[in-house]
């Protein structure tokens, strides 16, 4: 029996974070995971897969009809991605800040895109843009039994 630590519901916000095919090919999976781990966020789901056209179309549904949409879906389905669910206080907004601006050339150094990317269509990582998007994306990419329930013993050293 482990010690369980009561956690505020606000500390259990979740975001869908995905290393895109270029991030996998460039061996940046560990780098992305490291940054979220070291910040103190909790990994609750992770898998590697080559996305189907169907899942890509739904995932990027908000961009359907835009000129770059076919290229975007073609690219995201072109190779393996690492799909993840991360949990923690304000993870959606903070995750976006850690990832950086959509255009890597406008991303601040210190962000993932600002440190590792140049082109818009090769910006390494996806992160949910709102709590609603996160819930939709997590449900799209993961079944409930693929998300682990556990209490990291480090929690009281991260949250006061
Ligand atoms: P994100 O939420 O920061 O990833 O950005 P968006 O949701 O606006 O766009 C989704 C992804 O489509 C981005 O991460 C880019 O890889 C790509 N993308 C967005 N806008 C453009 C564009 O104008 N041209 C191209 N080629 N790709 C784009
Ligand atoms: Mg987006």
TrEMBL record:
GO molecular function: ATP binding; nucleoside diphosphate kinase activity
Reported cofactor(s): Mg(2+)
Catalysed transformations (reactions): a 2'-deoxyribonucleoside 5'-diphosphate + ATP = a 2'-deoxyribonucleoside 5'-triphosphate + ADP; a ribonucleoside 5'-diphosphate + ATP = a ribonucleoside 5'-triphosphate + ADP
Transport found in the keyword field: no
List of catalytic residues: 126
Residue numbers binding ATP: 20, 68, 96, 102, 113, 123
GO biological process, any: GTP biosynthetic process
Keywords carried by this UniProt record: ATP-binding, Kinase, Nucleotide-binding, Transferase
Highest taxon of the lineage: Eukaryota
Start and end residues of each Nucleoside diphosphate kinase-like domain: 12-149
EC number: 2.7.4.6
Family: Belongs to the NDK family.
Record protein name field: Nucleoside diphosphate kinase
Segment of the intact protein contained: 58 to 217 of 217
């Amino acid at each position: 029996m482990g010690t369980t630590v009561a956690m505020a519901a606000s500390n259990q916000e979740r975001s869908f974070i995905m290393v895109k095919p270029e991030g996998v090919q460039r061996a940046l999976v560990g780098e992305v995971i490291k940054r979220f781990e070291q910040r103190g966020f909790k990994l609750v789901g992770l898998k590697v897969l080559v996305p189907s056209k169907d899942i890509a179309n739904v995932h990027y549904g908000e961009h359907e009809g835009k000129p770059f949409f076919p290229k975007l879906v073609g690219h995201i389905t072109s190779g393996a991605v690492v799909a993840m669910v991360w949990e923690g206080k304000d993870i959606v907004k903070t995750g976006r800040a850690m990832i950086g601006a959509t255009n890597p050339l406008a991303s601040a150094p210190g962000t993932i895109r600002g440190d590792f990317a140049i082109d818009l269509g090769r910006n390494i990582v996806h992160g949910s843009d709102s709590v609603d998007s996160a819930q939709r994306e997590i449900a799209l990419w993961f079944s409930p039994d693929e998300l682990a329930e556990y209490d990291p013993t480090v929690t009281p050293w991260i949250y006061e």
